[in-house]
Predict the 3D structure of the following.
Amino acid sequence: QVQLVESGGGVVQPGGSLRLSCAASGFTFSSYGMHWVRQAPGKGLEWVAFIRYDGSNKYYADSVKGRFTISRDNSKNTLYLQMNSLRAEDTAVYYCAKDLSVGATTPEYFDYWGQGTLVTVSS
Amino acid sequence: AIQLTQSPSSLSASVGDRVTITCRASQGISSALAWYQQKPGKAPKLLIYDASSLESGVPSRFSGSGSGTDFTLTISSLQPEDFATYYCQQFNSYSALTFGGGTKVEIK
């Protein structure tokens, strides 16, 4: 069965950096695009970033463009999110999610989600 | 970016009720819309994609309809496990996937 397990969350000061990881299993990781989606405490869902199955294309929400970088290592079945210049408004649970369509070249839908990892940006 | 407006933001209903949630896009998105269910402390779950396609394993009491700018999620007979928050999501504008603000379905 598909499993996505995030790690790397924690408390970081404004302006700091953090790298999230998502270990994937139960499917052919190298065949699917992957996403990061976040949810601030008590708020709705916000898509953060997408990376194509082969890593050749990446898309970002305007709110994180230039500060966050999505990447993947298909040899390790792992997705990453490097977060720099963190702000208080980046405080959220961060989910990694698998795209629905095999071989998708642009982001579409999310059919499997991890349990999430909490990032708190506070001094 | 395309904005999605869900209504109502919350509703109270009883077990067995028929429930309808609407999602309106700020511009046409063809059928590029999904619906998700989220329970407290849990990750969202995909229910419907391409506006009306039922995800594998999702009960048939859930259905979706619409195209262009107006979409609906219908639960034909509300069950106890359906009390949750529901979100719509579009991908037509792939430079910025967006979610609706959510609809919380509570027990009357």
Q: What stands out?
A: Chain A touches chain B through 20 residues (CB under 8 Å). Residues 100 and 111 of chain A are 5 Å apart (CA to CA).
